[in-house]
Amino acid sequence: MKTLDLPADLEHDLAALAARTGKPEDELILDALRAFLERAQRPSWWPRSVGMMGDLGIAAADSEDWLLANWRPEEDWGLEMEEDRESGANRDPT
Question: Is there a domain that residue 2 lies in?
Answer without folding.
Answer: no
